[in-house]
């Protein structure tokens, strides 16, 4: 005759321990939180559809060149450079890292943001917003 514990063991639904079930639930919740956070960040980013039609997607080399050109204080095309960077930051997260790889690019962007030209300040604010909406690793670079 079968004992009561043997009978319970016979009809268990697999070998799921309480800890493994808890871990699966925790992993599922963590993944759900990450997805909802990413959706929130993406929804708050500046949309490319609101940019003028002349702004196109930039490659990583072009982002680096645009960041270098932005550092130059002379030139009247700083507004178009900022618009290009805003679009690039919105489209690809790798562009953020590439921009921050240029020495003095972030400092130049902040100096434009604190400058006196309100149109340039607005575009610089959009660039900084898109930088802040990037990956956590990008935020760590900015913080340093």
UniProtKB/TrEMBL annotation:
PANTHER family: TRANSMEMBRANE AND COILED-COIL DOMAIN-CONTAINING PROTEIN 6, TRANSMEMBRANE AND COILED-COIL DOMAIN-CONTAINING PROTEIN 6 TMCO6. It comes from Priapulus caudatus. InterPro entries: ARM-type_fold (IPR016024). This is Uncharacterized protein LOC106808866.
């Amino acid at each position: 005759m079968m004992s009561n514990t043997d009978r319970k063991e016979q009809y268990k639904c697999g070998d799921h321990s309480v800890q493994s079930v808890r871990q699966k639930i925790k992993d599922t919740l963590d993944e759900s939180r990450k997805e909802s956070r990413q959706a929130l960040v993406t929804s708050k980013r500046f949309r490319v559809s609101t940019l003028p039609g002349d702004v196109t997607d930039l490659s990583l080399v072009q982002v680096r060149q645009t960041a270098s050109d932005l550092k130059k204080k002379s030139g009247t095309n700083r507004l178009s450079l900022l618009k290009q960077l805003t679009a690039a930051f919105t489209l690809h997260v790798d562009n953020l890292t590439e921009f921050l790889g240029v020495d003095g690019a972030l400092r130049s962007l902040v100096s434009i943001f604190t400058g006196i030209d309100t149109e340039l300040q607005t575009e610089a604010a959009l660039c900084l917003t898109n930088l802040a909406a990037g990956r956590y690793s990008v935020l760590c670079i900015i913080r340093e």
